[in-house]
Records
---
Amino acid sequence: MGFRFRKRLKLFPGFWLNFSKSGVSASAGVPGLTWNSRGRVTAGIPGTGISYVEEIGSKPKSVRERRQAQSPRIPSTIASRYFAAFMRLQANQRGKSRGMSSVKV
């Protein structure tokens, strides 16, 4: 489990600056509905602790997801080639056991 850091500074009614380990963001809203500069909208019932958070846009949520979004999908392409070759080999072996000389897939 990791440590978290959050601090919220109210600039004026309905507008805050948020400080966290990952950086600074701004929020604006009214009781029960808040918009965040990082693309997060929070709707809740004031005083209950019950809320719903929705990420708006296609921003990756973590460093891992950002790296995956930037890196090419070469490993999965290689894996699919090996899988296709394996399936052809299996089909050829099944064909030989049935008395066929070769089977094209």
Note: Residues 1-60 form one domain.
---
Amino acid sequence: MINNVKNEVLRPLDEGQVRTIRVHERTKIVRNTKTYELFTLPRHKTYRLVTNKLVLPPADDPDRFLTYPYGYNYVDPDQLALLIS
């Protein structure tokens, strides 16, 4: 996966193309949801780099060029004082 990140920076793909890695799992336990039987089957999984799950802080924040993980909630320091008390 680290090679995907390096390649995105050093050799970016054209717009709309996605760099993927296909991984073969020789043994994957799966369950038939109707009969509740268990099976061991081979499976392929495709991984890709996701870069659009970032949250930007408000424009008036001095750290506005930092990004935060998806799901991060920005709290104004004044509001934080109210939440704590």
Note: Residues 1-51 form one domain.
---
Amino acid sequence: MVLQSFYHQHRGSIETVVFGPSMQRLPNMRIQLEVPDATAKRLQKLMEEVGVKTYSEFFGYALTGLDWMIKERRLGRMIASADPDIRQLKELSMPILDAVHLVPAPQPVPVPADAVVP
């Protein structure tokens, strides 16, 4: 089954789309995916479950989530779900997240004791 989606990164297009809170408004780019029927059914089931009506909207949410996960991994944080009742974490493991390189934390700048801080 072929699924079509539209994303917004190619210059020169007239249409614009806005996805989740971290996405910017840019011209559209057309993306066409070829996936097995089982994957298409899984995607359609998820879309129905959360009330998403278009592949573009679903892709936008997925991209926003992946973008956030990558940013968190760069900071050395784990991506996990928490069960507060039993105080347990379950870490998400994905090859794409394992490939993220950590960004060194900025080193604090020493402030002299006699410095005036507003």
Note: Confidence is low (pLDDT under 50) at residues 1-19.
---
Amino acid sequence: MPVRKNKMVAIKWASKSEFDSMVDSRARRVLNISAKQFINRWKQGRYRTLDSDTCPGVIELAILAPLPRKKRARKNTKRSSGHIRKVSARKSALPK
């Protein structure tokens, strides 16, 4: 059997300007509008009822674009440790 060599894959990090141009070119290709127009329309709610079958590529554009996201973080609540605390009743001091 021939020996398989592992191929090294290089990762290139995109700068903000490169990322903005990627989003802009994708928006122009999919919707014929700029990325800024897409983001403004997204914020206005114009794409809520849009079906991905009628306009393919919008879902990928929505994932790629820096859109406002809803925060789904938990509120500061105490987590239980899983243990059940026993509450001991205090013995009342009876007068002797």
Note: The CA atoms of residues 23 and 63 lie 10 Å apart.
